[in-house]
Amino acid sequence: MNLQLIELTEPAIEWRNALGFDDRETGRGPRRLPDWTRPQIPDLFVEAMVRMTSGVRLAFSTNATRVELDVGLLSFRAVDDPPRTLGFDVVVDGEVLIRESTDGGSRFVLDAVTREVLGFEEGAPITLGFDLDGASHNVEIWLPTAASCDIQALRISPGAAVERAAPTGRRHWVHHGSSISHCMEVVHPTETWPAVAARAGAVDLTNLALAGQCHLDQYVARTMRDLTPDLLSLKVGINVINMDSMKERIFKPAFHGFVDTIRERNPDTPFVIVSPIFCPSAEDHPGPTVPGRDGRFRVIDGPAALRDGSLTLRRVREILSEAVAQRRAAGDAHLHYLDGLTLFAEADHLAGDLPDDLHPSPAGYRRMGERFAAALFGAGAPFATSA
Fold first, then answer.
1. Are 260 and 157 members of one domain?
2. What is the C-alpha to C-alpha distance for residues 286 and 76, in angstroms, rounded to an integer?
3. How far apart are CA 120 and CA 224, in angstroms?
4. Which residue, 54, 100, 176, 196, is the most exposed by fewest CB within 10 angstroms?
5. Residues 157, 65: contact at Cβ < 8 Å?
6. How far apart (Å, rounded) are the C-alpha atoms in residues 317 and 92?
7. Is 21 domain-assigned?
8. What pLDDT score does 387 carry?
């Protein structure tokens, strides 16, 4: 069957969770931050996280019997590990009907400890194809969490139409966090904990989580502010310790500044601050953290004089709880605090769902999403329909 080509810039195609693009001769690459942020991105590693498509999906309505998508994939793998499995989910009329995965595409080969680039493996684009029944359906094609994607072609069966997907009528939730919200360890993109929570709470997700890069950056705060969503959340703290990027003196005002920026245009939007989940090495010891050759993360010891003012996870939770309480007392009744240990605690680690001592397993992420939904979307909760 000769399929008809659909222009990637066709107005009927929505690029949900994509706020900017790299348009090339080969195709269109979505970015999860706006184009104006490019000069402010501090390095190529951060830009790589911005280009990874956690939460990004193409949405449209079609009466096609066949849909195909050509995608160039770029990911990373540790030198001693096999290629990462990358998943695509196809959601039809709100239900996940089709799941595909691949270990293809191009990838950088890294030293897992030093992050030095040791090589490059070039791979061919892959084609995702699926069949539908020819009735009109709303379709979302969710892209992989742990790769950047160059969408090279979209094709549908001859004579079929592509139209704008019907509005969902759902509230818009914008979330920012670290790798624990980016969820690169999850194969299928609708199984990240924010996606699980969004589905349970019947909201439309924009996931701005950037692995390793949740440092209260103002370009992220301005992005969240300008989206003027219905719901907001920030899960912050672990990256600050991972990189030892802030002492307590800096962390407190940086947090307040981040919230202040968002509140400029969203003064009454329900906004939940989530503290870090359990991490055994950093609960009572400051960072930085590094992965060992065994794949587990550990903190680096250092002279006590250099640790003055350094943060532990226990102290980060205290600071965030106190700061939210202060702001609520000053009048921000729509700002809320959620202890990250209610999402993933030591018991979850002991159950084996923190395999590298930092990132949950897919089962752990799924449980986090279910717990977040119960805490935030239930009756009387900050994100409840009546909030």
1. no
2. 28
3. 34
4. 100
5. yes
6. 40
7. yes
8. 42
